Amino acid sequence: MTSRPATLGQLRESGWESLPVKEEVRRNAARRITEGKPLVDEVFGYEETVLPQLENALLAGHDIVFLGERGQGKTRMIRSLIELLDEWLPVVSGSEINDDPYAPVSKHARDLIHDKGDETPIEWIHRSSRYGEKLATPDTSIADLIGEVDPIKVAEGRYLSDELTLHYGLVPRTNRGIFAINELPDLSERIQVGLLNVLEERDVQVRGYKIRLPLDVMMVASANPEDYTNRGRIITPLKDRFGAQIRTHYPLDVRTELEVVRQEAQTLDGLGVQIHMPDFMAEVVATLSHLARSSPHINQRSGVSVRLSIANYETLIANAARRALRLGEKDAVPRVSDLEALVSSTAGKVEIETVEEGRDEIIVDRLVKAALLTVFKDRCPMDQFREVITAFDDQTIVHAGDDISSADYVEALTRNPSLREPVMALAGSEGPGVVASATEFVLEGLHLSKRLNKEATGGRATYRGR
Question: What predicted TM-score, i.e. pTM, was given to this entire model?
Answer without folding.
Answer: 0.85
